[in-house]
Amino acid sequence: MKLIFFLGKGGVGKSTLSILNALAVSHQDRSVALISLDRAHNLFDILQAESSELPSSLKVIEADLDWFVRQYLQETEAQLRRNYSYLTAINLEEHFKILRLAPGMEEYGLLLAFKHFYEKFKEFDYLIFDMPPTALALKFFGLPSVSLLWLKQLLKLRDEILKKKEIISGVKFGKKEIETDKVKNNLLEQQKRYQNLLEIFRNESNCRINVVSNPDSVSLAESKRIYEFLSDLEIPVHELFINKSSDKHDDRMLPPFFMKKNIFFSPKSRFPLIGISNLQKYLEMNKRLIDSLEK
Ligand SMILES: Nc1ncnc2c1ncn2[C@@H]1O[C@H](COP(=O)(O)OP(=O)(O)O)[C@@H](O)[C@H]1O
Ligand SMILES: [Mg+2]
Q1: What is the CATH number of the domain that holds 38?
Q2: Number of domains the chain contains
Q3: Could you read off the pLDDT of 246-273 as tens digits, one per residue?
Q4: Rounded to an integer, what distance in angstroms lies between the CA atom of residue 45 and that of residue 275?
Q5: Which atom of ligand 1 is nearest to the CA of 273?
Q6: 155-176, pLDDT tens digit by residue?
Q7: Among 31, 100, 121, 240, which is least packed, fewest CB within 10 Å?
């Protein structure tokens, strides 16, 4: 399965390019799922079509992020109850009501949504994600690394707690007691899951992270920051799409940072990129774009 992400500043053309990519790669014998993880969904507005009017090999989904945030909280609450039975004395529900509004919940919801669709469409040939604007999209990609840092510290703490428990109880825990420590096992499990996610994002042969920009200095500056942020996380960017570029574009107009990067100039359309037939027409007129999206 090929995973494809489109990210960039609001309005640069992420949704349009994700749809063009889905149309370019979807054939009768290839299944494609196109999923919007942006709260401000507009895939169906751009397609101007209902689900039932789309080819059967193409699934288009506008994910309900609030549902995933609630789901994340429910799972966390259930896990806390399982691991720490004494917590039933505390009114967890009250805490969770407030947690829903806490910073960070949105990206956990986003990551859960990603995992959900990744599992659900495992058998598909392409999974294309139309991402939310930059700040949130980068938190999403940063979350596995941040969580791994936390987990490393928490595991250290847990080991210290286990040692203290031994001292207090005066009994040396056997390997078995340590291995069956629910809290430690849970932390180890989470560590494995985040490590797997990070490996998925870092594997460029299956995962393409595309940055979309426009040929203006503001969106190019934002794109450069995306490259730098992802590079710190050792997550590679596959290609930069300079969308809405003029016919007379010139690589030398780009800041030196972009030299030798994989760049595709997708031209500004003379007709609105709304409705499947217009989008198909744009693809037909830009065969090189199809090649770039298909390769
Ligand atoms: N290559 C293009 N040529 C002309 N207009 C474009 C092009 N790509 C996108 N647009 C237009 O730009 C606007 C924003 O595009 P959209 O895909 O919704 O951006 P984003 O998802 O990044 O916010 C829309 O009106 C869309 O039709
Ligand atoms: Mg969009």
Answers
A1: 3.40.50.300
A2: 1
A3: 987 777 788 999 999 999 999 999 999 9
A4: 8
A5: 27
A6: 999 999 988 888 888 777 676 6
A7: 100
